[in-house]
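Hi there, hope your week has been kind to you so far. Thanks so much in advance, here it is:
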Amino acid sequence: MDDEINKICLDKIKGMIFGGIIGDASEIMLILCKSIVDNKTYMKHNTIEHYIKWVNQNPTLVGNNLNDLNDLFKDIETVNEYQKLYKLKFMQPKNKWSQNNGALMRCSPLALLMELDYFVEDCKITNPHPVCIDTNITYLTAMSMALNNYSGKDIIAELLELPVVGDIKNIIFDIINNKKS
């Protein structure tokens, strides 16, 4: 009964809150946040369980960037089933892997933990392409440092030291030089 009431309430407010829109990215970010709070840290296995549960509740606003979640979690019940689908999906060559920003859209809560391994682990759940991983590392490093009151200069210096692919480094250099990518 409580789940039904929660769903009705969420359906009533979905679409508008504080002038913004609640969509798939907001929901999955809150799911990650809930997993972190429940475990008092990031735990990949538990986070996958939370994602499986959310996808199988048939959220109404799953967009293109989160189709990777649907592909990997829809109609399954266990982490073992997810792992089998994952192996099948990512046995193809890397140049066929999605480089969408689904993992980036949900990752913000990880910035509070300031743990590089967590940034990588969560991204790999749905978007293991090196460009996606490096984008998450860059974004979350900057966000973590900003949350801890580092100066912009210190943040940029740290980002330049990150072991990320050239595409990401070039974007950082363009930002420093005020160029538009």
